[in-house]
């Protein structure tokens, strides 16, 4: 009774509510009080005030019991952990006209059919959906989805994030839906198509405004394709997709492949201003080579450990890291180096790299260092001779800033 009384005590707020977020946590179907609470609240909130729904694990079939299927006019549905239950998928297509953001997990093939067709036999069009985040089960899919080729289920989609597997034989999500896509985050796993196949699908879908691309872990299957990009007309394969991108994220690749892709491929087809490497370790030479190859680069995120230890694109004897003024200025656009936390990071080495970059990039402003390195950094920068060595070259450097960083 206390649970029901609590729900009833909130009803007086309903007339003043403009937007409500309903967060459904794990529900015990054997507790009738839980049912009464959600029945009471949801039945009232569903009269027009609910705009956002956050659903978490433990739902199963409970959404039907608690009348959420009658909700209309939702602008956002966000599923938490776990795969979606069918009622949540149905709720998505019932709000297809008003949804602007959808985060959902799809475990089985029927889930896709329900999302796209809504059980009607006709493709559902999400007229307002701008952001779609999918968690896909890493299992084989057998359908070719040929029947929905040419449809535009997501005519205004600007951001697509795919987590987990992506093993479709046919990339039906992109068919006719890529014209407005600007931000793409997608994994390239062994079970998925190769990287060129992916970009060809995007090319066919009419992508023209891409500004941000996040390439997930590159599988062994895809490495050969990346390594072979220099041997093919890259602009024909990927230029159409990358040429407008200003932000590029590469995750869990090898340093060699990342450098090859960044230095040999990207400069010919894109003007990258923001670049991030996750799961990679770079030395000074790598960083200098990247800055040199990408003259428009303003922001670089990577793990830094030490000075040059490998051969890069510039001969070691001519490297600007040797304080040689031959390559000055290396870049007038580069301004920020971000360094995420790593247990093996050396604050002194990071500081040295920062000073070397400052020597070569007159507009370099600051280093953004993970907060875990703060105490270590304060001790190590007292390294003897540090200030005397680099002071003449750091007139533009304004500050060293510590911030919390996402990998």
UniProtKB/TrEMBL annotation:
Q: Does the keyword Signal apply?
A: yes
Which keywords annotate this record?
Signal
Kindly indicate where the leader peptide sits in this chain: 1-26
User: What's the protein name?
Assistant: Uncharacterized protein
């Amino acid at each position: 009774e206390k649970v029901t009384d609590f729900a009833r005590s909130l009803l007086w707020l309903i007339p003043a509510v403009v937007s409500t977020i309903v967060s459904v946590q794990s529900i015990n179907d054997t507790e009738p009080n839980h049912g009464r609470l959600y029945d009471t609240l949801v039945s009232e909130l569903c009269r027009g005030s609910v705009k956002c729904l956050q659903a978490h694990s433990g739902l199963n079939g409970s959404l039907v019991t608690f009348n959420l299927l009658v909700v209309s006019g939702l602008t956002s549905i966000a599923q938490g952990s776990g795969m979606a239950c069918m009622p949540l998928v149905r709720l998505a297509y019932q709000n297809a006209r008003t949804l602007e953001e959808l985060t959902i997990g799809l475990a089985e093939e029927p889930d896709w059919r329900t999302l796209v067709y809504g059980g009607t036999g006709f493709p559902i069009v999400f007229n307002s959906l701008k952001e779609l985040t999918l968690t896909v089960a890493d299992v084989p899919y057998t359908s070719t989805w040929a029947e929905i080729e040419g449809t535009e289920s997501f005519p205004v989609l600007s951001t697509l994030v795919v987590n987990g597997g992506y093993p479709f034989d046919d990339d039906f999500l992109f068919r006719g839906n890529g014209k407005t896509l600007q931000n793409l985050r997608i994994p390239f796993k062994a079970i998925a198509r190769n990287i060129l196949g992916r970009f060809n699908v995007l090319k066919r879908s009419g992508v023209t405004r891409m500004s941000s691309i996040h390439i997930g872990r590159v599988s062994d299957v895809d490495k050969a394709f990346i390594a072979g990009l220099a041997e093919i007309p890259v602009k024909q394969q990927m230029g159409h997709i990358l040429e407008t991108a200003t932000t590029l994220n590469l995750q869990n690749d090898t340093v060699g492949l990342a450098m090859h892709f960044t230095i040999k491929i990207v400069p010919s087809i894109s003007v990258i201003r923001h670049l991030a490497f996750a799961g990679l370790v770079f030395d000074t030479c790598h960083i200098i080579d990247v800055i040199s190859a990408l003259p428009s680069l303003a922001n670089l995120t990577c793990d830094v450990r030490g000075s040059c230890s490998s051969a890069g694109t510039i001969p070691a004897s001519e490297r600007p890291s040797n304080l040689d003024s031959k390559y000055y200025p290396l870049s007038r656009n580069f301004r920020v180096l971000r360094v995420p936390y790593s247990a093996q990071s050396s604050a002194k080495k990071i500081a040295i790299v920062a000073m070397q970059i400052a020597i070569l990039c007159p507009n370099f402003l600051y280093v953004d260092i993970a907060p875990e390195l703060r105490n270590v950094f304060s001790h190590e920068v007292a390294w003897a001779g540090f200030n005397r060595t680099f002071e003449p070259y750091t007139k533009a450097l304004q500050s060293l800033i510590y911030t919390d960083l996402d990998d």
